TrEMBL record:
Keywords: Membrane, Transmembrane, Transmembrane helix. The chain crosses the membrane at residues 48-73, 94-111. It comes from Candidatus Nomurabacteria bacterium GW2011_GWC2_42_20. This is Uncharacterized protein.
Amino acid sequence: MKYVLSIFIGIIFTTLFGVFVAHAQNYTPLAPLPLGEGGTPLTTYTISSYLGGMLKLLIALGAGVSILVAIIGGTQYVAAGIAPSAKQDAKERILNALIGLTLVLTSYLILNSINPGLVQFNFSLPPIGTSPMATTTPIVAEPWPDDASERAQLASKNIMVTGTKTSTTCKTIWEKGCTSVYQLGSGAISGLLSLKDSCLSCAIVVTGGTEYWSHSVNTAHRPGNSVVDIDNGSSALNQKIRSGTSLGVQSSCSSLGVAYRLTGPGAGLYVDEGNHWHVCY
C-alpha cells in the first residue's frame, strides 16, 4: 500500500502535464524560439515542440534508469549469498525499479492517448562532414530557371510571392533571401487558387516554394512537390485555416507545430510553424 499513493500521484501529474502540452500547442510565443527545421534559424519551434521533446526525453531516461536499477538489484541479490539483510535490500531495489518502469510505461500510454505526436521518437541525424545537399546537388551557384509562368498563375488571384529580404525570384542555386515557385506542384497552385476563391479577404503571400537549399536536409520544398510556406500575417487567413480540423502535432507534413486539415476549397494540411504556415496539398 505504501506505493499506491506514489503511483497515483505520478499518473495524475502525467495526465495534467499531457493536457497542458496539448493546450500549449495552440500557443505562439511573442518572440520566435531559437533553432528550427533541420537545426537552422530559417524556421522556429513552437512552445509545444519544446514540451513534446522534453516529455520524450523524460520517458526515455525514466525507462533506462528503471532497467539499470533493476539490473543492479539483481546483481546484488545474486552476490548477497546467505545474508538476509542484503537480499532484502536487493529485493526492494528491484521492486522499486519495476514500480518506476510501470510509471514510465503508464505515462507513455496516457500521453499517447492524449496526442500520439508527443511520444514519437526520431533519432535520425544528418551525415557528419558532408554538405546537407551533397547527395542531390553540388554547392555551386548554377542558374535557377525562371518561374514567371507559375507566378503569373498565382498573380491572377492576387497571390503574392516574396522572399525573406526581397520580392524577386531566385536567379541561382544557393542564393539567399529569395523565393521561387519554379515547377511548383499543380496541387499547390490549384490549392492556393481555390483557397483564395473561398476567402477573398485572405491575404495569401507565398514565402517558401521550391528553393530547396533554403530549407532542411530532407525538405519537400522541391520542384514537382505541392508544398509551400505562406505568411501568417493575415487574420482572415488564420481564421480560415483554424476553422479546419485540428490534428495536433503530427509528422505526415511537418512535426514543428499544430496541423489543421482543410477540406473543400484549399484542401490540405496547414501546419503552424510559428512565423508562417507550412502547407502540404
